Amino acid sequence: MRPFDGRRILLGVTGGIASYKTVMLARLLAQAGAHVDVVMTRGALEFVGAITFEAVTGRRTYSEIFGPGNALDHIRLAKEAELFVVAPATADFMARAAHGLADDLLTASLLANTSPVLIVPAMNDRMWANSQTQKNVAHLRELGYEVIDPDVGPLAVGEGSGPGRMPEPDVIFSLIARRLEGQSTLSGRKIVVTAGATREPIDPVRFISNHSSGRMGVAIAESARRRGAEVTLVAGHLEVPAPVGVRRVDASTVDEMRNAVAYALSEADVLIMAAAPADFRPSGSRNQKIKKDGGFSSIELTPTEDILTSTAASRKDKAVIVGFALETEDLAKNAKLKLEKKNLDLIVANDATQDGAGFRVPTNRVTLITRDGQTEEIPLMQKTEVAEIILDKVEQLLNGRAG
To answer: Active-site positions?
Structure first.
C-alpha cells in the first residue's frame, strides 16, 4: 500500500497504558507493507510483551542497549529508519529526549537518528499541563522534532477526561502516511471529493437510491489527504468509514450535494465527482408514511439537477474537474459524450456489467479519458490502487496548467 510498501519505520514504545494501542498501530503499518522495527523501553515492557509486537510485525523487537550483539543496535536502527515514531511518548521520555540523554536504547537511537521524528504524547492531563512538560515539548519542537498535541478524552479509570489521551491508531497511521508521502503537486491544494449514494425521499421512511457504497470516493479522498491536500469530502450515504483528517460535509439528497459542491467549488483546485447522485426523484414526496393498505399503483419521477453542469459557473479558474461514468453499454462513447457535455478534464468510465467492477465491491476496472482524447485502460485492481492512478493523472493535469 502506497506509501508504506518497503519503507523502514522505527517505532519507539514507552511505558504508558496507551501502549496497547501501539500494537494495533504496528499491525496497521506492517499490513500496509512497512518494515517496522520496534524499540521498547523497560517501562513499556511492563504494559505489553515484546512477543506481541513481534507477532504483528514479523520482526524482532528491541529493548536492551547492553548485551551480546547489542553494541551497535542504536546506530544501525537509526541509520536504517526513514521515519522515527514514538507512540506513546511519556512525560519522562520527552524530558530525557529534550535534554539529550542516551540512557537506554530508545534515547540512544534518537540521538543517532537523522530521519524525521514524530512524537505522540500520552499522559495524565495534569502531567501534560505541567510547565516543565510544556517547556520540554517546546524544546523538542525547536530541535526539529514534530510533537503532536494529545487528544482530549477519557483518561485512566478515575481520572475523568482531559487533554493527554493518545490518538487512535488509525489517526496516527494517517499522520505517518502523510509524512512518508512527502511533497507532491497536491500539497496545500484544496480538493473536493464526492462519494456515496444520495437518497431521494418517497415519504418519511422510504427513499429512492442506488447501490453505491462510497468506496471509490473515500479511497480518493484518503489518497489526496495523504498527498498533502486539504480535502473536503461531500458524503452521501457511505458503507465505509470516512478517512481521517478530511473535512466531511454530509449531503443526503441531490439538492444537498449540489449546494455543498457549489459552496466549496469556488476555492477548489480540483473537483472529483465520484458520488452516485440519483438521476431521478419522486415528483412529490409525501409528508406522512404511505400506508400499505392504502396502496398506490405508481411513483411519478422527475429528473434531478445534474451537479457537474449546474455548478460549472462556480468553478475556479484552471481547476481540474473529474467526473465518473458508470455504464452498461457503449462505455467509451457514452463516457466521451458526458466528458464533453459536462466540460470535464478527465472522466473515469467503468462498465457495471463486468465482474469485480462497479458498486459494492473493493475492486474496479476503469478507463480514463482526458479532454484531449487520451485513453488509458486500467485493469482490474483494488479501488485504493485505482485512486492512486486517478490522482497521478490529476497531478499531471495540474502540472500542465501551472503556467
So the answer is: 210
Domain limit, last residue, from 115, 146, 180? 180
Cell numbers that stand for 200 in this block: 431521494
Q: Radius of gyration of the chain from Cα atoms?
A: 25
User: Rounded distance, CA 52 to CA 58, Å?
Assistant: 10
Q: Are residues 86 and 148 in the same domain?
A: yes
pLDDT per position as a tens digit, 321-370: 999 999 888 988 999 999 999 999 999 999 888 888 888 899 999 999 99
From 182, 200, 210, 231, select the one nearest 387 (Cα to Cα): 231
pLDDT digits (tens, 9 = 90+) for 145-204: 999 999 988 777 666 677 889 999 999 999 999 999 987 889 999 999 999 999 999 999
**Residues ≥6 apart with Cβ < 8 Å to 244:** 170, 171, 173, 174, 225
Q: CB 149: neighbour CB atoms within 10 A?
A: 12
Give the bridge partners for 61, in sequence order. Answer: 38
Which residues span the domain enclosing 226?
Answer: 185-400
Task: Give the end-to-end CA distance of the chain in Å, rounded to a whole number.
Answer: 33
Total domain count, the chain: 2
The pTM for the full model equals 0.86
